[in-house]
Structure prediction request, 545 residues.
Amino acid sequence: MIKFVLNILIRAIKVGLKLDTQIAQDVLCLPKKYVIKINVLPKNKSVTIKLENGKITKLKHWQYENVDLMVEFKDEKSAKEVLLGKTSLSTSFCEHRIKIYGSVNDAITLTRIVNLIECYLFPKFIYSKLFTPQPKMEESKLKFYLTFLFGGKL
Amino acid sequence: MKYFEFTNNVKICSGENALVNIVFELQFLNAFKPLILSDAGLKKAGTVKKVLKILNKNNLDVSRTYFSIPPDSSTSTINEIAEFYKTCGADSIIALGGGSVIDTAKGVKLVLSQEKDDIMTLTGNEVINAGKKIPFVIVPTTCGTGSECTTVAVIKNDVTHQKMEFISSTLLPDVAILDPMVIETLPPKLVATTSLDALTHAVEAYSCKQNNPISTGLAITAINLITQNLFMSLNHPKQEVYKLNLLNASTLAGMAFSNSMVGIVHAIGHALGRYNVPHGNAMAILLPACIKFNLNVMAEKYSELLLYFKGPEFYVSILEDERPNAFYKEVKHFVEMASNITGFSLKLSDYGITEQDFSEIATFAINDGAAAINPKLFSRADVIEILKQCL
Prediction:
């Protein structure tokens, strides 16, 4: 279940990168050729992506050696709360439920990207409780969902 | 917040002649050959000599020293000192100084305890294990950073020039020595700006997303001590008691924000640090403008803070709806008074900042670790608006 939701998140970030210039701008803030891993303990369920030339590619475990930034949830329950919109990534960070390997500044950029993606993915009654004020989406949710479902290989 | 953690295992020795206790505290930690870290400014001011004299008199070996720590802690300085520690045969660290010296010493301790050669291999948040025991004592020489009781070190990356945050409870020292003697010659401007830094720590610790009941209590006491002692200290510079109270306030605020973290004031302040705006001055300039920015989502907290900032009589004299705004106005007035008495500027333009710098400062600010903790999300445009108000 965790792995499935993580994969949805990654596809949603790819859609966001295509449709929303704020996400594209934030991706540009990160170093070139950057490998990010999101890992969930205790069973090490994870997804790894590479940012290169403004594109996101999902990596299999044999496709990378070093990870530049790893956001690691200390337990599955905390990860589910963030991934299902019950709490925000920054609140989870505040509650010491996340460990960060690598640059904290880059993790903040990633947090901002995830915040915006959650606004696209979840209905307003969910995300309005997570963020004050709510991040502004540049595209309609309908276009986001259509691209997510029928956008092919992004 | 549904869950919180609070860490502080530092022994605090505070008051007159506190310095003398260093020898006993080091012996307790089985340490006899400390490496003493400080900077050229404190050496020139005679503070280092005074402290060494006291330690020497109490039979502590003070032959291992490093006094060339630059104003910005950097990765290369830390690696160099860690190497020096190994070759000079030291068995412990004493940091004597302000934020830069303390953060450098924390970095050195981290490298040594993890038995690494390069601090850059240890970046992150909560990813470091306890490691090897390195006895560590901090003697703060300003009344602002509170770094002697925080789990954070801000260190400049020599390659990217980025200010990086290292967050780990292993950064805490074993002992913090708060002796008013070491700050007796601190110029009034520095007393004011560093105390306003401590006030910012307390206000942000009280109001940020990570706040908790323990840090709230510490922040309130810090605010009380600062409001009651800052102007007394500036008007009666020879009376040690006021400075000691400010030192205690700084430590309390440090303990509070180490566990609550800080928000937008520090996010922008760290970015201004790249432009050589002194940290305490940046805090004084930004605090009122950032309170104004957070006002609509923090009305309740700021209303409560008015009580601790101005006392019960003033608090009840203000209508309930007007209290948050009254808090903003009182903080602004407090900062302006400190500026008028000691003569530091509250305009960013006087520190060389121009409108052309705003975009870059804003980018750094929104990517700062503190940005995630502020109770209100903020964008580049919000930061630029705040900077315009402070120009």
User: Anything to note?
Assistant: The mean pLDDT of chain B is 95. The beta strands of chain B are 11-14, 34-37, 65-66, 92-97, 124-125, 136-140, 152-156, 163-167, 175-178. The first strand of chain B starts at residue 11 and ends at 14. Residues 89 and 242 of chain B are 39 Å apart (CA to CA).
